[in-house]
Amino acid sequence: MLIKQEGIILKTIDYGESNKIATVLTKDSGKLSVMAKGAKKPNSRYAAVMQPFVYGSFVYFKGSGLPTISQGEIILSFKQLHYDLFKAAHAAYITELIEKLTEERRPYVFLFDLLLLALKQIDTGQDPEIIARIVDLKMLTVAGAKPNLDGCASCKSVERDPIAFSIPFAGFLCSGCVHRDERAYPVTLSMVKLIRTLFYVDLTKLGSISIKRETKERLHQIISSYYQEYVGVTLKSQRFIDQLKKVDGNHFKLDEKKD
């Protein structure tokens, strides 16, 4: 049976001398693994469409084994993601996270839209780190680890302003409950607002956003700790991003010395 669907390439792996197996996030059928025969050959008609981040239209044969691609056309290739290493690294982070936290053949309509919008935002100049943090927060619901962001995670009060984020309590703590977790991350009201905004924001309505480096690092620290406790995924792409930041930091220090 031939099936036509639109999808986004999450990852590809080589299979045999000339083939590739692609993991594709489709809107209607969720995550699928499909075979693209001969895709490793330079002159293959699948060579271009079987690249990470490509949004394409695919026709595949569904039989008893692994579905096999018979046609593939690029809808969007997100060229900037292939030319800018920092953008590519964060796009890889997002696709790897989604690949890790989703099940085969389970429809995730909102997730397909989220990924497509995230790639578009990064490709057109939005801060890749902020887009990655938005996806981080929204994927917590998919992982069954949604934090309590609407009030105090301990006493449930919505009257008192949060002053800390607690990993054990899975959310914010107010001034009356902060003593319950000595290791809770202190947060300002602006950080509370930022976390809530990034969690609930509709990417179609996201305007230009600029956040200080130290704020982004603090936000990432909190989210990473939360993921380690409740989700337990380790991403290869994060290690690569860390290496890029070290190189960028060293260049910045050298420039400072020259000045």
From TrEMBL:
Gene Ontology biological-process annotations: DNA recombination; double-strand break repair
GO cellular component: bacterial nucleoid
Domain of life (superkingdom): Bacteria
Coiled-coil segments on the chain, per record: none
Alphabetized UniProt keyword annotations: DNA damage, DNA recombination, DNA repair
Transmembrane residue ranges: none
InterPro entries the UniProt entry points to: ARFGAP/RecO, DNA_rep/recomb_RecO_N, NA-bd_OB-fold, RecO, RecO_C
Domain DNA replication/recombination mediator RecO N-terminal: from-to ranges: 1-78
One Pfam family here: RecO_N
HAMAP family for this protein: RecO
Known function: Involved in DNA repair and RecF pathway recombination.
Homology family: Belongs to the RecO family.
This protein's name: DNA repair protein RecO
Source species taxonomy: Bacteria, Bacillati, Bacillota, Bacilli, Bacillales
Gene: recO
